[in-house]
Automatic annotation (TrEMBL):
Residues in NfeD-like C-terminal domain copies: 37-91
InterPro entries (alphabetical): NA-bd_OB-fold, NfeD-like_C
Organism of derivation: Listeria floridensis FSL S10-1187
Protein name, per record: NfeD-like C-terminal domain-containing protein
Source superkingdom: Bacteria
Length: 98
């Protein structure tokens, strides 16, 4: 069975879950889209331990965030890969060794 959701019908993370319009009110969908547009793909840093939920700082603002799974220490670099129910979905930003 193929789902035919439009961009207006969902707010999505990179590879984590879908939030269908029937679950949230339109204004919440729009709020999450605006948040996604503001921070998606940006880099930041964990300001609390992520186990897997915590807080991150992106462009000088602090947001509630979560990892798909696992644990990150304070000051670990992260990148935003999506939004899910008001949380930023983040993953560790891997940097190449020089």
């Amino acid at each position: 069975m193929e789902d035919n959701f439009s961009e207006d019908a969902i707010v999505y993370g990179d590879s984590w879950g879908l939030v269908h319009r029937g679950v949230l009110e339109d204004r919440e969908i729009e709020r999450m889209k605006a948040l996604r547009d503001k921070v998606f793909g940006k880099n930041g840093v964990a300001v609390t331990t992520m186990k897997p939920i915590g807080r991150v700082e992106i462009d000088g603002e602090v947001y509630e965030a979560r990892l798909d799974n696992g644990y990150l220490d304070v000051r670990t670099p992260v990148t935003v890969v999506g939004i899910d129910f008001g949380y930023l979905l983040v993953k560790e930003l891997k940097t190449e060794a020089k």
